[in-house]
User: Fold this.
Amino acid sequence: MQAATLQDLQSNLSNLQQQQAQANTQLQNTLDKQKEEQDRLNQILQEQQKEQAQLDNKLDQQQKQDDEKQKQIDQFIRDAFKLWQQKLQNKTDNINSEIEKKINENTEKINQAKKEQETIKSEIETTKKEIETKKQEHQEAQKKIEENINTIKQEVQTIQKTIDDTKVQIKQTQQQTTAIQNNISTNSNLVAATNTATYDLYLANMNSLNKRMGELRDNPKGQG
Assistant:
């Protein structure tokens, strides 16, 4: 009985050992599989980490490129803004210079116009004074002309009276001559003397008349 029990125990032990060996084998297989899986996962993780590192590197490079591009863009904007400011300042300076030039030209023209206006006013005043002076001189000359005309009229009347008197004297002398000629047979010398006296008187009157007419022609005021 005990022998059978021991044998059973040994059989059970052997079975247990076999089961234990199988279990150990299965466990080892499971552990190996887990290790393989762990290795695979570690490899995947390493690859992912590597990819992440590469991605991070790419991101860093992209960020650097983006930063560099942003710097270039910012520099371009600053340069463009400075250039625009410079052009605007130059344009503003040119406009201000042109405005100042126009102002100076207009100011000079205004001053020149004022000077010309003052000159014209002065000339007008001078012309007015000259006209007034000429007017006074004309009035005085007109007055003198009227006086000379009146004097000439009086002198003409005097000359006309002299001529008339001379004509009367000539007529009287001719009558006397006729009377003397009628009596020529008695006194020829008296006839010759009378004719000479008549002619001399005529010449004297004509010379006086010519002299006075010459004086009137030589007087510019007397000619109007």
